[in-house]
Amino acid sequence: MRFAQLTRQPDDPLLRIIGQHAADPRSDKIDLGVGVFRDEAGRTPVMTAVKAAEARLLSEQSTKSYLGPEGDVGFVRALAELVLGQVVPADRRVGLQTPGGTGALRLAAELLARAGVPRIWIGSPSWANHAPLFKQAGVEPALIPCYDLTSQHFDLDGFLAGLGGAAQGDAVLLHGCCHNPIGIDPDAQGWAAIAQHVADHALLPVVDLAYQGLGDGFDIDAAGARTILSAVPEALLAYSCDKNFGLYRERTGALFALSPDADTGAVVLSNLLALARANWSMPPDHGAAIVRIILEDAALTREWRDELEAMRQRLASLRAALAAGGRIGAIDLAAVAHGKGMFATLPLSPSQVAWLRDRHGIYMAGSGRINIAGFSTAAIARFHDALRDMVANEVA
Ligand code: LMR
């Protein structure tokens, strides 16, 4: 009896919040859990550019036949041009479509394992799925604590000092922008210093770019990734369209590899295609086809970029309103203004997180990570009040 050898695994703590929040009957509950964009009414709408592309797809698509393990090559080409066009010459990059950014990371991890990379260095805390994903693929995660939650600060020196422990050929994971879960990215000088270190020590960067357009602006959000990719002969870029096209459940992503020359690139791509085939055979089509239609049409691209910019501005103004709460007990909300994108992580204990949920119907990850898009303007005032209540009740 083989199954008897298995031990029960806990539910994913972040995904569990979706069900807990749904089951809560309180009408003023606040969902700051899983990272999806929400409008003021708490909806996660389908973007109008996506709807228009879907309508076109519905009328024009004449077959559902297989595409192959590389997925929609028009999507891959258009996305590569958009994100890497000005930086990486076409003959030094290869790419393929993946099921979401997670699929891209999984393929990256398996490629690293195949290439004999023993370890990946990850600034900590990181997205909760990063370390297990690489570990399961046989690449050992090495965590470098480098964020201070009280001051909402990224410790660049600490990160580089931690990276000093890496051996030549080790990989390093970098969040391209809108760090998940902290929301704090290196500044331009920080990116330059990281690029220099990575190049000097012959490390292999894996950039996870999942929130382009939700930080400072679409192009500037890729600046860090471009700085890294310009400095090294080899790199991987995992890209997600789930957030910036609002395609979450369509699982739309891509993995790009940068190689020193076209011949090496062809070998890398052949390995990625073989790994994809053994994992999911071929990626789902719908989301990638939508992104391709948008990117190949100037008017739809403009419409999408305008919608994305409005989303970005909503996040920035919610963040500013949250930060206006100032100091509440030990929590300096003003420091949250240093961050960008969907997330901030507050210095809250697990029991404070549980208390806020039970007493006030406020749902967030056990780590204290909040999805800022989950607020309405009114909910921010309630959140400030709830934190004051928590301090008044001396909840530790
Ligand atoms: C998140 O961090 O909330 C999202 O990236 C969703 C996920 O898969 O964890």
Describe the structure.
The chain has 396 residues and is α/β, with parallel strands linked by helices. 43% of the residues lie in helices and 15% in strands. The protein contains 13 helices and 15 strands. The chain has a seven-stranded mixed sheet with strand order 2-10-9-8-7-3-4, sandwiched between helices. The chain has a two-stranded parallel sheet with strand order 1-14. α2 packs across α10, α3 crosses α10 and α4 crosses α9 (262-279). The mean pLDDT is 97. Bound molecules: (2S)-2-hydroxybutanedioic acid. The site of (2S)-2-hydroxybutanedioic acid (LMR) has 6 residues, from loops.
Structure in a nutshell:
Helix content is 43%, strand content 15%. It contains 13 helices and 15 strands. The longest helix has 26 residues, at 298-323.
